[in-house]
Amino acid sequence: MPRRRSDTKRGRLRGFPPVIDAGVETLILGSFPSEASLAAGQYYAHPRNQFWHILGQVLGEPLAELPYEARLARERAHRIGIWDVIDACEREGSADSAIRNARANDFGHLRRLAPKLTRVIFNGGRAATFEARFRAAGFITEVVPSSSPAHASRTLAEKISLWRRALADRRRAGGARAHHASTR
Is 101 in the active site? Predict the structure, then answer.
């Protein structure tokens, strides 16, 4: 289970380790855990964050109703991993716009951790700032609307449809082609 990691610099927040294994083919990258997620030691723990509901709808699994460890087991059974683009930052509150002095996660060992990884899906605009880097590294990339409760410009049904399209054919060939579901 991801746990909040301490940092030696006072007031600096640390994110979680990746939820990934050698079977992962698709990685969903968010920005950085919310205050609720950090407090719970769980990805997407804010009760209004739609991540587990959306992913559950797309995968045909009752993820939002399962205990956290079972959610993680089910998403990995679908060969999906979870991580964030930011490892550490300073932030008041939970808004991505409040993130300061961000340090990116070290993605250098990603191919060793998940040798079957071919697709990276970015959950929202802040995470999507890393899309070009992953596309240049040869991954198929997709950007989907944020599951955050702060991203209210799309209905839940619209988000589910766009996430479904992004995750529909995770094994599709296409090399480094980028596929974008609009986040606007």
Answer: no
